[in-house]
Amino acid sequence: MSDLSKFLEGIDNLSHRERVEEVFDWIHNKYPKLEIEIKWNQPMFTDHGTFIIGFSVSKKHLAVAPESVTITHVEDEIVKAGYDYTKEIIRMPWKSPIDYALLEKMIEFNIKDKANCSTFWRK
């Protein structure tokens, strides 16, 4: 957790830091079995050593990275939420509300889809 604290302390904008903490607290409370790790200077949640979802922070948004298969799976919901996205990340603007139902759908999909995955990333 000290690595997570260092990551959070590195977010200069206090409201952005609080938003990230809120999201991470929500994930931790809803999915207590997920582990949080810092890899490539980004916080990631894992399940039995496999990647579930990752985050990064920029000036304009919180970037969510659930893997491209997951983005394809929830693409309609991303569009409905009004988020900009690529095949690898979803950009949640700081001024927009967090769509927790979308986060839940992505996390649930990855937990179920990767239940028997023995690698960090999908192959």
Automatic annotation (TrEMBL):
Superkingdom of origin: Bacteria
InterPro entries: YdhG-like (IPR014922)
Ranges of residues in domain YdhG-like: 16-111
Protein name per Swiss-Prot or TrEMBL: YdhG-like domain-containing protein
SUPFAM superfamilies: YdhG-like
UniProt organism field: Saliterribacillus persicus
